[in-house]
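FW: tagging you since you asked about this chain on Friday. Here's the raw sequence from the shared folder, copied in full. Didn't touch anything.
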Amino acid sequence: MEIKRPKGKILVVDDDNLIKDFLKESLSRLNHQVDLASSGDEALDKIKRTEYDIILSDIRMPKMSGMELLKATRKFSPYAKIMLMTAYGTIENAVEAMKLGAFDYIQKPFSVDDIEIKIRKALDYKKLEWENRLLKSEISGKYKFENIVGKSPQMKKIFELVEVVANSRSSVLLTGESGTGKELIAKAIHYNSPRKDGPFVKINCAALPEGLMESELFGHEKGAFTGAIRLTHGRFELADEGTLLLDEISEIPLSLQAKLLRVLQEKEFERVGSGQPIQVDVRIISTTNQNLKERIEKGKFREDLFYRLNVIPIHIPPLREKKEDIIPLAEHFLRKYNLENNRFIKGISEQVFEMFMEYFWPGNIRELENFIERAVVTAKGKVLVPDDFPKEIFFKKELKKLGVGNTLEEVEKSLILKTLEACAGNKTKAAEILRISTRTLRNKLSEYGVKR
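HL: got it, structure written out here
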């Protein structure tokens, strides 16, 4: 099947009528829309009134040269692809044209095939640019404050702070339990900042082996170590003029913390295997679910690095402390997974919402999203009901039956056993819900003579 190439709207600028007429006839046969101009002034007048995809201009023209037209066009038509033509081509001219923003450089004489290949290339590139701008616009819209679900007073205060912080260059440290939405806030900071058109790059410090982390952060030269078969750019280079998210910063090895501190202080680093410093302009946002001050006391985290990262601290509270957000979040995830799975679940029952409000949510927003996604996929009815959710959400209501007449040991034992039952015997999850260590849970079960 033949792939249809996009038609282009093209302006040909040349004081040679033979060239103009030749290009008009040739390009029109190829289904492009072609306008003509005999001088730079005439071309600029047309450019001010019409949006062109491509401008083909001679370099040597009276009054306004092609180079001067190129400079002037940037102001009125920044997305047009400009190609300069000349019969007096030199390497110097080509380099200067590219520096000024020309898309390509064409030397006369040329064939129609030569021109058409360059036009196709320019139109394809322009289409990719348009798609990229559209994608960035959609992403930026997604992370606008009004589009982030959070109605509680705590989240409103965070949004107010983030709005101020976004316009600064300062490092931000986001703290909070796993699943509270720290990465979402990090993206909101980036996409509401002057860097929103730059890259947003993430590295999970907990997911990488210590031996690979330096290369991931700073890149490496070809031959720097066994297996380094090519030059590789690190996350700092990739994030230049944008934002770098250091996720779970508490897990970065001590051996790398000094190098990270240097980048933050001096705005430069060296690739592994190179002594050449590379300067970068990167905004750092870090996240952690650990207490970094405790890690400093234990000698596992540098105090000077902590103060560099913690210029603006933002704490994201757990879901159990902002229960006003539970219902709007659940409804948001219901809409999301209805759409993704082509389901038509109409709503969530009041019984489910009651249980949601009583549940501890050890996994926070991520756990709520997981429960809603699973329920949407597996539900048999048009409304989500308690049977569509795991038992662990609902066990607390049964515990209310315990009261006067029960000993403290009986209440404790009942709570632990029912929690374990709700978690299908998963001791780690049960311990998280009970806010005790797994070791304490095992000791309690041993006291009760329970073998699980």
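FW: Residues 9-136 form a domain with the Rossmann fold fold (CATH 3.40.50.2300).
HL: agreed, and Confidence is low (pLDDT under 50) at residues 1-6.
FW: great, closing this out.
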